[in-house]
Amino acid sequence: MRVTVFGATGGIGRLVVQQLLDTGHQVTALTRSPDKLSLTHPSLTLITGQLSDRPAVTKAVTGAEAVISALGPSLKRSATGTQLADGTRTLVAVMNKQKVTRFIGLATPSLADPRDKPHWKHKVLPVMAKLMFPNALRELEGMTQAVTSSDLDYTIARITNPTDKPATSRSKSGFLGHDKVGSAMTRADIAAFLISQLTDTRYKRAMPVISN
User: Fold this and answer.
1) CATH class for domain 2-211?
2) How far is 189 from 97, CA to CA, in rounded Å?
3) DSSP characters over 70-103
């Protein structure tokens, strides 16, 4: 499958790219600093640019069968602006124009899915985020709203505590108040879950919570 990856130089994005290549996919990655990816592969195309660069985004998305975004906001308290939210709106517009409908991305349980039932995470996590990472929460809200209000066939995996432990090849997924899903998950397993959604249709137009 031809897959375009955003956030390819991050901790999860790098693993997404590597696992896609290892399983035979054709990968295009848009990144501001291609040298940070430190990957070379005949099935990998690197495009230099950022989300605010619509021509670069268009070049990256053209011909893709799906988009995986491993982008996430900065957790620095000094961070300002809504670059990722604005960029995600650009990405959605480009995907619509290029008729690329499948979007797979990330968020946190600070944001609710309509399928959730009342849960302590709905109360605690948004309050913590507003106190500790207010700009990051605004970015997440803007990014998610840009996707969920569109006509894209999206799956947004909500993660709480990504770790650098070795992959377990085990995952739980579902909705708060319905399913027994924990908080911690290795970045390698998060990447594997995102890739699995290329062919798994259970969570189309949904935001499942995932964990090990």
Assistant:
1) alpha beta
2) 32
3) -------TT--S-HHHHHHHHHHHHHHHHT--EE
